[in-house]
């Protein structure tokens, strides 16, 4: 068995990013110990924490450390002071967007994995949910998030430009088709091609790439219809590929299939170092209270091992431990319901300890 030597950069960021990433890191340490790998770690600043320390939401030092590491375990960015001040020029999420652009992280994978134990944690009926298993590919370095933005008419008019080029659609489409080949050979491409020119290009390119994958059944859906179908019939979805903005919104919606944002991990991959992070943000409303669900970070660590290091067995061991913790009845507050006994509702650290004991 091959022992691996890898260097992991831990970037907790802001708010509950700090709390959940600490658990994700402990799980990685446990895996290294259990399987005999040698993982070394470093930490770096991003977001509000980096603005406070260096006046820059993504200091060069952080970017260099990211480039020099084998993978990044990331938390979240954000602070209430910017949410209430839209005019702030230097903002935490600029660090996140710049990181994605600089590292060429054009594909964001978001598996919507429903653990059976959480069927009742969702607001969707169990008989509709049971067996749902979706893998989103959200494009991450283009679209309206990265186009020109500004104001005109003395600030009375605002604009954001959406732009996509053929190669950008092609590379994310290929990643999604490759994944479809390893799963149910079904792919849904989501766009708004009845209205948007970027979406018409998107659909053309996906149709062209589809010819390279004759075994995959392709379905095109408009985003409004896809949003409706996700709640009506989640089992209809397998692999989904979509643009940055649509993917951002649809995956938060899809988090309700898994029961909570606190359960959903993501992998951002592309040209260089992969970045693994929960889909949730810094959650000011529960920051510092020890209530955050650490599973999204822990499952991000599992994705890191699988995708960046090719350590499938180790990755599965983490997913299995999450399953066992849930089977034991342990719940953080976000996934607890009226039937959860009080003594089974645990905080972030205690949930982490439960995970480590099962590992
Ligand atoms: P959020 O994802 O931080 O929180 C939404 C809701 O879900 C909150 O009620 C929160 O308590 C709950 N929640 C999220 N993660 C949880 C977890 N692990 N365990 C238990 N409950 C959890 O989104 P929100 O509130 O819209 O934004 C808060 C800040 O985060 C903002 O400053 C925003 O800009 C930033 N943000 C950052 C992201 C990132 O770094 N990738 C993504 C989304 C938002
Ligand atoms: Mg989002």
UniProtKB/TrEMBL annotation:
Protein's organism: Persicitalea jodogahamensis
Site (Important for catalysis): 145, 192
InterPro entries hit by this protein: IsoCit/isopropylmalate_DH_CS (IPR019818), IsoPropMal-DH-like_dom (IPR024084), Isopropylmalate_DH (IPR004429)
Pathway involvement of the protein, from the record: Amino-acid biosynthesis; L-leucine biosynthesis; L-leucine from 3-methyl-2-oxobutanoate: step 3/4
Cofactors (names): Mn(2+); Mg(2+)
Limits of the Isopropylmalate dehydrogenase-like domain: 7-355
Annotated substrate binding sites: 100, 110, 138, 224
Binding site for Mg(2+): 224, 248, 252
GO MF: 3-isopropylmalate dehydrogenase activity; magnesium ion binding; NAD binding
Task of the protein: Catalyzes the oxidation of 3-carboxy-2-hydroxy-4-methylpentanoate (3-isopropylmalate) to 3-carboxy-4-methyl-2-oxopentanoate. The product decarboxylates to 4-methyl-2 oxopentanoate.
UniProt entry tagged with the keyword Amino-acid biosynthesis: yes
Record carries keyword NAD: yes
PROSITE patterns, per database record: IDH_IMDH
Cofactor binding: number and manner: Binds 1 Mg(2+) or Mn(2+) ion per subunit.
Keywords: Amino-acid biosynthesis, Branched-chain amino acid biosynthesis, Cytoplasm, Leucine biosynthesis, Magnesium, Manganese, Metal-binding, NAD, Oxidoreductase
Enzymatic reactions: (2R,3S)-3-isopropylmalate + NAD(+) = 4-methyl-2-oxopentanoate + CO2 + NADH
One GO CC term, this protein: cytosol
Pfam families: Iso_dh (PF00180)
Subcellular location: Cytoplasm
Protein family membership: Belongs to the isocitrate and isopropylmalate dehydrogenases family. LeuB type 1 subfamily.
E.C. numbers: 1.1.1.85
PANTHER family assigned to the protein according to its UniProt record, in alphabetical order: 3-ISOPROPYLMALATE DEHYDROGENASE (PTHR42979:SF1)
Protein name per UniProt: 3-isopropylmalate dehydrogenase
GO BP of this protein: L-leucine biosynthetic process
């Amino acid at each position: 068995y091959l022992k691996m030597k890898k260097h992991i950069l831990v970037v907790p960021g802001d708010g509950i990013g700090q709390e959940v990433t600490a658990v994700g890191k402990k799980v990685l340490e446990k895996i290294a110990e259990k399987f005999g790998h040698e993982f070394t770690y470093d930490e770096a600043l991003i977001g509000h924490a980096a603005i406070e320390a260096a006046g820059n939401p993504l200091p060069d030092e952080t970017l260099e450390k990211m480039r020099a590491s084998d993978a990044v375990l990331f938390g979240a960015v954000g602070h209430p002071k910017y949410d209430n001040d839209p005019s702030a020029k230097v903002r935490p999420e600029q660090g996140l967007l710049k990181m994605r652009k600089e590292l060429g992280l054009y594909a964001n994978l978001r598996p919507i994995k429903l653990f059976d134990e959480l069927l009742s944690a969702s607001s969707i009926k169990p008989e509709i949910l049971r067996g749902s298993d979706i893998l989103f590919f959200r494009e991450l370095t283009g679209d309206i998030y990265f186009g020109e933005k500004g104001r005109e008419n003395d600030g009375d008019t605002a604009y954001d430009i959406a732009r996509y080029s053929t190669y950008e659609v092609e590379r994310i489409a290929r990643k999604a088709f490759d994944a479809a080949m390893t799963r149910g050979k079904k792919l849904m491409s989501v766009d708004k091609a009845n209205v948007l020119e970027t979406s018409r290009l998107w659909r053309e390119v996906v149709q062209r790439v589809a010819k390279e994958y004759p075994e995959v059944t392709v379905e095109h859906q408009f985003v409004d219809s896809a949003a409706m179908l996700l709640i009506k019939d989640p089992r209809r979805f397998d692999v989904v590929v979509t643009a940055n903005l649509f993917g951002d919104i649809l995956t938060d919606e899809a988090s309700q299939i898994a029961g909570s944002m606190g359960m959903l991990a993501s992998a951002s991959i592309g040209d260089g170092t992969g970045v693994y992070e929960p889909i949730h943000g810094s959650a000011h409303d529960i920051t510092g209270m020890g209530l955050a669900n650490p599973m999204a970070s822990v499952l991000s660590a599992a994705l890191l091992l699988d995708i960046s290091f090719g350590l499938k067995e180790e990755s599965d061991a983490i997913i299995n431990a999450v399953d066992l913790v849930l089977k034991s009845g342990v719940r953080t507050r976000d996934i607890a319901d009226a039937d959860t006994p009080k003594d089974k509702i645990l905080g972030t650290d205690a949930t982490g300890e439960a995970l480590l004991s099962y590992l």
